[in-house]
Write a structure and sequence with these properties.
about 260 residues, 2 domains, two-stranded antiparallel ribbon, 2 strands, about 70% helix, about 5% strand, flat
Length: about 260
């Protein structure tokens, strides 16, 4: 059960200055960067080019291939679909674009949504690729995030692979009995499987909780290792958000 916890497919092993930064420094940097991006005035476009260039520089320093980032950006597809619908359904003055009548305000809102959403997604991808998940959780602890939330995320990370493996075994069991989900009539079978999976996960959680209590668990997980950050590491982590904040402030002045 614990064999897959040391490695995570999102993390990309590299020996770079970004990888070596303490996790809480990177978390604060990404949060500050995202806040600066979403604070950009609607009338200005050039700051997004600055944000994108800064992120590209961080990805280059981290030695992350562009293909890897583009592949992982598939999680943004629902937001892209929503943004593409905005010019069609929004009201107000219309313009003709390739023979389609689109809303001017909808086009502007769609562009802003895509720009801000894409930058946020790429920043998260870079963070995940340069920081192990357990280090992210450690960083949240060091930043004094509520213990209940940290523990929920910790257990979710540790037992996600266990739940996925259980789901796979149930799927194999169904298929070995000749079941193939081909139409809506098979939904009751899938619903029963989902219910059985929920019960198994609940019972496993009860057993894990009792085992933890028997080992002295008091409602707070221990910090497995202490991580400190010196002023130089904070300064390196602050480069990305500093560029973003400077661009945002300049955009508001010019606006």
């Amino acid at each position: 059960m614990s064999g897959g916890h040391g490695h995570h497919e999102l993390y990309v092993e590299r020996a770079t200055v970004v990888h070596r930064l303490p996790p809480h420094c990177k978390l604060v940097a990404v949060l500050a960067f995202v806040v600066a991006v979403i604070s950009t005035p609607r009338s200005e476009v050039w700051p997004y080019l600055v944000y994108a260039a800064a992120l590209a520089a961080v990805a280059a320093v981290s030695r992350l291939p562009a293909t890897l980032i583009l592949r992982r950006m598939v999680v943004e597809v629902p937001f892209v679909v929503f943004a593409l619908l905005l010019p069609v359904v929004a009201r107000g003055p219309r313009v003709e674009v390739f023979g389609f009548s689109l809303s001017e305000s909808g086009l502007q809102a769609a562009g802003i949504l895509l720009a801000k959403g894409t930058l946020g997604v790429v920043a998260s991808i870079v963070l995940a690729a340069t920081t192990r998940p357990r280090d992210v959780l450690l960083g949240l602890q060091l930043l004094r995030m509520p213990q209940a939330l940290v523990q929920i995320m910790t257990f979710m990370f540790r037992y996600l692979e266990v739940v996925l493996a259980e789901t796979g075994r149930m799927r194999v069991a169904r298929e070995s009995r000749g079941f193939r989900a081909r139409h809506l009539g098979h939904l009751p079978v899938l619903a029963h499987s989902a219910g059985a999976l929920f019960i198994r996960c609940y019972e496993r959680g009860e057993r894990v909780h009792l085992a933890m209590l028997s080992r002295g668990y008091t409602g707070r997980l221990p910090v497995l290792r202490e991580v400190s950050a010196h002023s130089g590491q904070w300064a390196v982590a602050a480069i990305l958000p500093a560029v973003a904040v400077l661009a945002t402030a300049s955009a508001w002045v010019l606006a």
